Amino acid sequence: MLQKAYANFQKNTAPFISEYFYFQYEHKWWLEDFALFMALKDHSNGESWSSWPVEIKFRKPAAVLQYREKLKDGIDFWMFTQWLFFRQWHQLKKYANEKGIEIIGDVPLYVSTDSADVWANADIFHLDEDLNPTHVGGVPPDYFSKTGQLWGNPVFDWQRLEERQFDWWISRLRFNINMFNLVRIDHFRGLESYWSVPAGEKTAIHGKWEAAKGYQLLTKFKHDFGSLPFIAEDLGVITPEVEKLRDDMHLMGIKVLQFAFGSDAKNENLPHNYKPNFLACTGTHDNDTTLGWLNSVKGKEKKMVRQYLGEGETALSNAIEMVFASTAKLAIVPMQDILRLGTEARMNIPGTATGNWGWRFEWKLLLPSHGKNLKELTEKYNR
Fold it and tell me: How many percent of the chain have pLDDT more than 90?
Protein backbone atom coordinates (compact mmCIF):
# COMPACT_ATOMS: atom_id res chain seq x y z
CA MET A 1 0.00 0.00 0.00
CA LEU A 2 2.84 2.39 0.81
CA GLN A 3 4.50 1.58 -2.50
CA LYS A 4 1.23 2.42 -4.30
CA ALA A 5 0.92 5.65 -2.33
CA TYR A 6 4.50 6.53 -3.26
CA ALA A 7 3.83 5.83 -6.95
CA ASN A 8 0.75 8.07 -6.84
CA PHE A 9 2.71 10.76 -5.03
CA GLN A 10 5.36 10.75 -7.75
CA LYS A 11 2.66 11.35 -10.38
CA ASN A 12 1.29 14.41 -8.60
CA THR A 13 3.77 16.01 -6.21
CA ALA A 14 2.74 19.61 -6.94
CA PRO A 15 0.27 20.09 -4.04
CA PHE A 16 2.79 18.79 -1.51
CA ILE A 17 6.21 19.63 -2.91
CA SER A 18 7.13 22.60 -0.70
CA GLU A 19 5.91 20.80 2.44
CA TYR A 20 7.76 17.64 1.44
CA PHE A 21 11.07 19.37 0.76
CA TYR A 22 10.81 21.39 3.98
CA PHE A 23 10.32 18.11 5.88
CA GLN A 24 13.50 16.75 4.27
CA TYR A 25 15.39 19.91 5.20
CA GLU A 26 14.11 20.03 8.79
CA HIS A 27 14.82 16.34 9.46
CA LYS A 28 18.00 15.96 7.47
CA TRP A 29 20.02 15.27 10.64
CA TRP A 30 18.45 11.80 10.99
CA LEU A 31 16.36 11.24 7.86
CA GLU A 32 19.20 10.81 5.36
CA ASP A 33 20.94 8.13 7.43
CA PHE A 34 17.68 6.36 8.21
CA ALA A 35 16.46 6.30 4.60
CA LEU A 36 19.83 5.05 3.35
CA PHE A 37 19.91 2.43 6.10
CA MET A 38 16.44 1.13 5.20
CA ALA A 39 17.23 1.11 1.48
CA LEU A 40 20.40 -0.87 2.23
CA LYS A 41 18.35 -3.29 4.36
CA ASP A 42 16.01 -3.84 1.42
CA HIS A 43 18.97 -4.22 -0.95
CA SER A 44 20.57 -6.85 1.31
CA ASN A 45 17.31 -8.80 1.91
CA GLY A 46 17.02 -7.64 5.50
CA GLU A 47 20.49 -8.66 6.65
CA SER A 48 21.91 -6.91 9.69
CA TRP A 49 24.27 -4.05 8.83
CA SER A 50 27.04 -5.99 10.60
CA SER A 51 26.95 -8.38 7.61
CA TRP A 52 27.10 -5.69 4.91
CA PRO A 53 30.16 -5.23 2.67
CA VAL A 54 32.95 -3.77 4.78
CA GLU A 55 33.09 -0.42 2.95
CA ILE A 56 29.45 0.45 3.67
CA LYS A 57 29.43 -1.28 7.06
CA PHE A 58 32.17 1.17 8.12
CA ARG A 59 30.51 4.03 6.21
CA LYS A 60 33.45 4.82 3.98
CA PRO A 61 32.60 8.17 2.32
CA ALA A 62 33.04 6.84 -1.23
CA ALA A 63 30.77 3.87 -0.47
CA VAL A 64 28.09 6.07 1.15
CA LEU A 65 28.07 8.29 -1.94
CA GLN A 66 27.97 5.29 -4.26
CA TYR A 67 25.01 3.67 -2.49
CA ARG A 68 23.13 6.97 -2.23
CA GLU A 69 23.21 7.14 -6.02
CA LYS A 70 22.61 3.42 -6.60
CA LEU A 71 19.65 3.16 -4.20
CA LYS A 72 18.14 6.59 -4.85
CA ASP A 73 14.62 5.33 -5.55
CA GLY A 74 14.60 3.20 -2.39
CA ILE A 75 15.92 6.14 -0.35
CA ASP A 76 13.22 8.42 -1.76
CA PHE A 77 10.55 5.84 -0.90
CA TRP A 78 11.66 5.67 2.76
CA MET A 79 11.80 9.47 2.98
CA PHE A 80 8.26 9.56 1.63
CA THR A 81 7.00 7.07 4.23
CA GLN A 82 8.52 9.13 7.04
CA TRP A 83 7.01 12.35 5.72
CA LEU A 84 3.64 10.63 5.46
CA PHE A 85 3.80 9.23 8.99
CA PHE A 86 4.87 12.43 10.72
CA ARG A 87 2.42 14.49 8.67
CA GLN A 88 -0.43 12.28 9.88
CA TRP A 89 0.94 12.07 13.41
CA HIS A 90 1.09 15.82 13.91
CA GLN A 91 -2.42 16.21 12.49
CA LEU A 92 -3.61 13.68 15.08
CA LYS A 93 -1.71 15.40 17.91
CA LYS A 94 -3.14 18.80 16.94
CA TYR A 95 -6.66 17.37 16.90
CA ALA A 96 -6.18 15.69 20.31
CA ASN A 97 -4.70 18.83 21.87
CA GLU A 98 -7.59 20.94 20.56
CA LYS A 99 -9.94 18.54 22.38
CA GLY A 100 -8.02 19.02 25.64
CA ILE A 101 -6.27 15.65 25.38
CA GLU A 102 -2.52 15.52 25.85
CA ILE A 103 -0.33 12.64 24.66
CA ILE A 104 2.42 11.00 26.70
CA GLY A 105 5.26 9.56 24.65
CA ASP A 106 7.93 7.07 25.61
CA VAL A 107 11.67 7.09 24.96
CA PRO A 108 13.50 3.78 25.45
CA LEU A 109 16.90 4.24 27.06
CA TYR A 110 18.60 2.02 24.48
CA VAL A 111 18.33 1.40 20.76
CA SER A 112 18.66 -1.81 18.76
CA THR A 113 22.08 -2.92 17.54
CA ASP A 114 20.64 -3.38 14.07
CA SER A 115 19.51 0.23 13.70
CA ALA A 116 20.40 3.36 11.80
CA ASP A 117 21.23 4.95 15.18
CA VAL A 118 24.12 2.56 15.89
CA TRP A 119 25.28 2.25 12.27
CA ALA A 120 25.45 6.04 11.84
CA ASN A 121 26.81 6.81 15.34
CA ALA A 122 29.07 3.85 16.12
CA ASP A 123 31.44 6.01 18.17
CA ILE A 124 28.91 6.66 20.96
CA PHE A 125 28.46 2.94 21.75
CA HIS A 126 30.81 0.37 23.25
CA LEU A 127 31.69 -1.60 20.10
CA ASP A 128 34.78 -3.61 19.18
CA GLU A 129 37.01 -3.03 16.14
CA ASP A 130 34.56 -5.02 14.00
CA LEU A 131 31.64 -2.85 15.27
CA ASN A 132 30.06 -5.60 17.38
CA PRO A 133 28.90 -4.72 20.94
CA THR A 134 31.45 -5.46 23.66
CA HIS A 135 28.84 -4.94 26.40
CA VAL A 136 25.05 -4.97 26.35
CA GLY A 137 22.28 -3.59 28.52
CA GLY A 138 19.87 -5.19 30.97
CA VAL A 139 19.03 -5.24 34.65
CA PRO A 140 20.24 -7.48 37.48
CA PRO A 141 17.96 -10.04 39.19
CA ASP A 142 14.89 -8.27 40.62
CA TYR A 143 11.17 -8.53 41.40
CA PHE A 144 10.41 -9.65 37.84
CA SER A 145 13.22 -12.14 37.11
CA LYS A 146 15.65 -14.26 39.15
CA THR A 147 18.30 -14.06 36.40
CA GLY A 148 17.70 -10.41 35.60
CA GLN A 149 16.78 -9.16 32.16
CA LEU A 150 19.28 -9.37 29.31
CA TRP A 151 18.13 -6.94 26.65
CA GLY A 152 21.13 -7.25 24.35
CA ASN A 153 21.22 -3.57 23.29
CA PRO A 154 24.65 -1.94 22.97
CA VAL A 155 25.42 0.39 25.90
CA PHE A 156 26.51 3.99 25.52
CA ASP A 157 30.04 5.33 25.69
CA TRP A 158 29.15 8.24 27.97
CA GLN A 159 32.64 9.72 27.75
CA ARG A 160 32.29 10.03 23.98
CA LEU A 161 28.75 11.38 24.33
CA GLU A 162 30.06 14.12 26.60
CA GLU A 163 32.80 14.95 24.08
CA ARG A 164 30.05 15.37 21.49
CA GLN A 165 28.12 17.68 23.85
CA PHE A 166 25.44 14.96 24.14
CA ASP A 167 24.24 15.97 20.67
CA TRP A 168 22.67 12.59 19.83
CA TRP A 169 20.70 12.41 23.08
CA ILE A 170 19.65 16.05 23.02
CA SER A 171 18.42 15.77 19.43
CA ARG A 172 16.50 12.62 20.36
CA LEU A 173 14.83 14.19 23.41
CA ARG A 174 14.01 17.38 21.56
CA PHE A 175 12.46 15.37 18.72
CA ASN A 176 10.24 13.52 21.20
CA ILE A 177 8.99 16.60 23.06
CA ASN A 178 7.96 17.93 19.65
CA MET A 179 6.03 14.71 19.00
CA PHE A 180 4.36 14.54 22.42
CA ASN A 181 3.16 16.80 25.23
CA LEU A 182 5.02 14.86 27.90
CA VAL A 183 7.69 12.18 27.54
CA ARG A 184 8.44 9.21 29.78
CA ILE A 185 12.13 8.25 29.84
CA ASP A 186 12.13 4.49 30.11
CA HIS A 187 14.66 2.89 32.50
CA PHE A 188 15.53 6.34 33.83
CA ARG A 189 17.97 4.87 36.35
CA GLY A 190 20.24 4.06 33.39
CA LEU A 191 20.97 7.78 33.09
CA GLU A 192 22.63 7.67 36.53
CA SER A 193 24.29 4.26 36.22
CA TYR A 194 23.55 1.25 34.04
CA TRP A 195 23.91 -2.52 34.27
CA SER A 196 26.61 -3.52 31.77
CA VAL A 197 26.83 -7.19 30.77
CA PRO A 198 29.70 -8.61 28.67
CA ALA A 199 28.43 -9.52 25.20
CA GLY A 200 27.89 -13.26 24.86
CA GLU A 201 26.53 -13.86 28.37
CA LYS A 202 23.37 -15.99 28.49
CA THR A 203 21.80 -14.11 31.43
CA ALA A 204 22.17 -10.69 33.03
CA ILE A 205 23.62 -12.08 36.28
CA HIS A 206 27.30 -11.41 35.52
CA GLY A 207 27.08 -7.69 34.85
CA LYS A 208 28.19 -4.64 36.82
CA TRP A 209 27.03 -1.09 37.42
CA GLU A 210 28.78 1.59 35.36
CA ALA A 211 28.39 5.35 35.83
CA ALA A 212 26.44 7.35 33.25
CA LYS A 213 26.34 11.11 32.72
CA GLY A 214 22.62 11.80 32.91
CA TYR A 215 23.08 14.75 35.26
CA GLN A 216 25.27 16.54 32.73
CA LEU A 217 22.93 15.60 29.87
CA LEU A 218 19.75 16.85 31.54
CA THR A 219 21.45 19.98 32.86
CA LYS A 220 22.54 20.88 29.34
CA PHE A 221 19.11 20.10 27.92
CA LYS A 222 17.44 22.34 30.51
CA HIS A 223 19.97 25.11 29.84
CA ASP A 224 19.37 24.90 26.08
CA PHE A 225 15.57 24.50 26.09
CA GLY A 226 14.39 25.92 29.41
CA SER A 227 12.34 22.99 30.69
CA LEU A 228 12.34 19.23 31.20
CA PRO A 229 8.88 17.91 30.23
CA PHE A 230 9.82 14.36 31.19
CA ILE A 231 8.57 11.57 33.45
CA ALA A 232 11.29 9.48 35.07
CA GLU A 233 10.45 5.76 34.91
CA ASP A 234 12.21 5.10 38.20
CA LEU A 235 11.12 1.51 38.85
CA GLY A 236 13.39 -1.41 39.69
CA VAL A 237 16.69 -1.18 41.60
CA ILE A 238 16.64 2.49 42.60
CA THR A 239 19.40 4.10 44.65
CA PRO A 240 19.57 7.45 46.49
CA GLU A 241 21.71 8.72 43.59
CA VAL A 242 18.91 7.97 41.09
CA GLU A 243 16.35 9.66 43.34
CA LYS A 244 18.62 12.69 43.67
CA LEU A 245 18.95 12.97 39.88
CA ARG A 246 15.16 12.75 39.52
CA ASP A 247 14.48 15.29 42.28
CA ASP A 248 17.26 17.72 41.34
CA MET A 249 15.77 17.87 37.84
CA HIS A 250 12.22 18.17 39.29
CA LEU A 251 11.01 15.20 37.26
CA MET A 252 7.91 13.18 38.02
CA GLY A 253 8.63 9.67 39.25
CA ILE A 254 6.25 6.69 39.11
CA LYS A 255 4.41 4.86 41.90
CA VAL A 256 2.83 1.45 41.27
CA LEU A 257 0.03 0.41 43.60
CA GLN A 258 0.68 -3.31 43.04
CA PHE A 259 4.08 -2.86 44.71
CA ALA A 260 2.55 -1.34 47.85
CA PHE A 261 1.56 -4.35 49.91
CA GLY A 262 4.71 -6.38 50.38
CA SER A 263 5.89 -4.81 53.64
CA ASP A 264 4.01 -2.47 56.00
CA ALA A 265 2.30 0.90 56.30
CA LYS A 266 5.57 2.71 55.54
CA ASN A 267 5.78 1.25 52.01
CA GLU A 268 6.59 4.12 49.66
CA ASN A 269 4.10 2.83 47.06
CA LEU A 270 1.14 3.25 49.41
CA PRO A 271 -0.72 6.43 48.40
CA HIS A 272 -0.63 7.95 51.90
CA ASN A 273 3.17 8.04 51.57
CA TYR A 274 3.30 9.70 48.14
CA LYS A 275 4.98 12.99 47.51
CA PRO A 276 3.06 15.17 45.03
CA ASN A 277 5.45 15.08 42.05
CA PHE A 278 4.65 11.52 40.97
CA LEU A 279 2.60 9.64 38.44
CA ALA A 280 0.52 6.97 40.20
CA CYS A 281 -0.86 3.87 38.51
CA THR A 282 -2.50 0.61 39.54
CA GLY A 283 0.00 -1.32 37.40
CA THR A 284 2.23 -0.94 34.35
CA HIS A 285 2.61 -2.87 31.08
CA ASP A 286 5.07 -5.14 32.92
CA ASN A 287 2.60 -6.06 35.68
CA ASP A 288 -0.29 -8.49 35.61
CA THR A 289 -3.67 -6.78 35.35
CA THR A 290 -4.81 -5.66 38.78
CA LEU A 291 -7.59 -8.27 38.84
CA GLY A 292 -5.06 -10.97 37.87
CA TRP A 293 -2.70 -9.72 40.57
CA LEU A 294 -5.46 -9.65 43.20
CA ASN A 295 -6.29 -13.26 42.38
CA SER A 296 -2.65 -14.33 42.79
CA VAL A 297 -1.49 -12.57 45.99
CA LYS A 298 -0.70 -14.82 48.94
CA GLY A 299 0.36 -14.80 52.58
CA LYS A 300 1.16 -11.51 54.29
CA GLU A 301 0.74 -9.56 51.07
CA LYS A 302 -2.81 -10.93 50.67
CA LYS A 303 -3.62 -10.01 54.27
CA MET A 304 -2.42 -6.45 53.71
CA VAL A 305 -4.34 -6.20 50.42
CA ARG A 306 -7.53 -7.18 52.23
CA GLN A 307 -6.84 -4.61 54.93
CA TYR A 308 -6.51 -1.75 52.42
CA LEU A 309 -8.65 -2.84 49.46
CA GLY A 310 -11.10 -5.48 50.63
CA GLU A 311 -11.84 -8.53 48.46
CA GLY A 312 -13.14 -9.50 45.01
CA GLU A 313 -14.65 -6.89 42.68
CA THR A 314 -14.65 -4.38 45.52
CA ALA A 315 -10.85 -4.67 45.83
CA LEU A 316 -10.35 -3.74 42.18
CA SER A 317 -12.70 -0.75 42.46
CA ASN A 318 -10.95 0.40 45.62
CA ALA A 319 -7.51 0.05 43.99
CA ILE A 320 -8.55 2.31 41.12
CA GLU A 321 -10.13 4.82 43.48
CA MET A 322 -7.05 4.81 45.72
CA VAL A 323 -4.88 5.88 42.78
CA PHE A 324 -7.32 8.65 41.79
CA ALA A 325 -7.60 9.82 45.41
CA SER A 326 -3.85 10.06 45.92
CA THR A 327 -1.82 13.28 45.98
CA ALA A 328 0.08 12.15 42.86
CA LYS A 329 0.27 14.75 40.10
CA LEU A 330 -1.02 12.29 37.49
CA ALA A 331 -3.13 9.15 37.86
CA ILE A 332 -3.15 6.43 35.21
CA VAL A 333 -5.23 3.26 35.15
CA PRO A 334 -4.53 0.69 32.40
CA MET A 335 -7.50 -0.03 30.15
CA GLN A 336 -7.51 -3.67 31.27
CA ASP A 337 -8.25 -2.51 34.83
CA ILE A 338 -11.03 -0.19 33.67
CA LEU A 339 -12.55 -3.16 31.81
CA ARG A 340 -11.98 -5.44 34.84
CA LEU A 341 -10.01 -8.03 32.86
CA GLY A 342 -7.88 -10.79 34.36
CA THR A 343 -4.49 -12.33 33.57
CA GLU A 344 -5.62 -13.28 30.06
CA ALA A 345 -5.31 -9.58 29.15
CA ARG A 346 -1.80 -9.09 30.55
CA MET A 347 0.50 -7.06 28.26
CA ASN A 348 3.98 -8.32 29.04
CA ILE A 349 5.98 -10.70 31.23
CA PRO A 350 9.51 -9.23 31.63
CA GLY A 351 12.36 -11.57 30.83
CA THR A 352 10.34 -13.60 28.30
CA ALA A 353 10.91 -13.16 24.59
CA THR A 354 7.64 -14.58 23.23
CA GLY A 355 3.92 -14.60 23.98
CA ASN A 356 3.66 -10.89 24.86
CA TRP A 357 1.74 -7.88 23.55
CA GLY A 358 -1.13 -10.00 22.29
CA TRP A 359 -4.03 -8.19 23.99
CA ARG A 360 -5.92 -5.64 21.92
CA PHE A 361 -8.59 -3.19 22.97
CA GLU A 362 -11.86 -3.17 21.01
CA TRP A 363 -14.52 -0.49 21.39
CA LYS A 364 -17.23 -3.09 21.97
CA LEU A 365 -15.54 -3.89 25.31
CA LEU A 366 -16.24 -0.40 26.65
CA LEU A 367 -19.62 -0.03 28.35
CA PRO A 368 -21.44 3.17 29.38
CA SER A 369 -20.89 2.16 33.01
CA HIS A 370 -17.12 2.35 32.53
CA GLY A 371 -17.30 5.94 31.32
CA LYS A 372 -19.75 6.87 34.07
CA ASN A 373 -17.42 5.47 36.73
CA LEU A 374 -14.39 7.31 35.33
CA LYS A 375 -16.32 10.57 35.17
CA GLU A 376 -17.40 10.20 38.80
CA LEU A 377 -13.84 9.48 39.99
CA THR A 378 -12.42 12.35 37.93
CA GLU A 379 -14.87 14.86 39.41
CA LYS A 380 -14.73 13.46 42.93
CA TYR A 381 -10.93 13.73 43.19
CA ASN A 382 -10.44 16.83 41.00
CA ARG A 383 -8.46 14.97 38.36
Answer: 94
